[in-house]
Amino acid sequence: MKILNDEEIEAMRVVGRISREILDEAAAATAVGVTSDELDRIVHEATVERESYPSPLNYYNFPKSCCVSVNECICHGIPDQRPLQDGDIVNLDITAYHRGFHADLNETLFVGNVDDESKKLVRVAHECLYKSIDMVKPGEKYREVGNTIQKHAASNGCSVVRTYCGHGINELFHTSPTVPHYSKNKAVGLMKPGHTFTIEPMISAGTWKDLTWPDNWTSVTADGKRSAQFEQTLLCTESGVEILTERRSKGGQPYFMD
Fold first, then answer.
1. For the chain, does the N or the C end have fewer beta carbons within 10 angstroms?
2. H-assigned helices in the chain
3. What is the distance between the alpha carbons of residues 114 and 87, in angstroms, rounded to a whole number?
4. What beta strand segments (E) does 62-201 contain?
5. How many Å apart are CA 255 and CA 109, to the nearest integer?
6. 116-119 — which CB contacts under 8 Å span 24+ positions?
7. Are the CB atoms for 131 and 147 separated by under 8 Å?
8. 1-20: per-residue pLDDT in tens?
9. What is the Cα–Cα distance from 228 to 139, expressed in whole angstroms?
10. What is the pTM of this model?
């Protein structure tokens, strides 16, 4: 697992800030009647304006510049012409590549008036991320992250998707370590200062099982119930953790709390 030097860490801070600014622009445009294609256009233009490249674009033939995952879509939703509807929950997943480094984050937002069950699901997903971020420090085992997340999800009647994991990120979009979000996983390695990686739990209202559409990207819950996700790119420091993609306003709170 790569330990970044001071120069590389500073480059990660820069791309982390850029990726957050891009998500902020997309979040500001998220509303009833807006298509995910329009959000993708905003993301693409905001990325290019910042002398960056949208990492998802053409990544293993992914056709768009971000992932937009609505309701029962767990992750990797391909932006299209469907307008967002009142009551939807929508996840915006942004990755930018700037001067040799990637940073990756996502948030689940409310569209209009969302039902209480969906509000709880989104809240629990956010809590799962932040309970796991609180663990990050030198010497912590990567496999322990999943124990913390699954315990909190299960105590709230939710399940944890097992197919997709957090990951190392630096000059590579996805690299070691692998950070599973479920308990009793076999992930290897200890956190060390200079490690940069994501934690990005996908929390579902029903089953943890997923299906992939014939487009080979779109992942949905097997039972059609909703799923919510939050993600940050993290730096393990000597004293704990720095959230490189944290929101710069409102104390870093997520948009669904605004």
1. C
2. 6-29, 36-49, 116-133, 144-155
3. 4
4. 67-70, 73-75, 89-98, 101-110, 159-160, 166-168, 175-179, 196-199
5. 6
6. 117/205, 117/226, 118/87, 118/89, 118/205, 118/226, 118/228, 119/256
7. no
8. 999 999 999 999 999 999 99
9. 29
10. 0.98
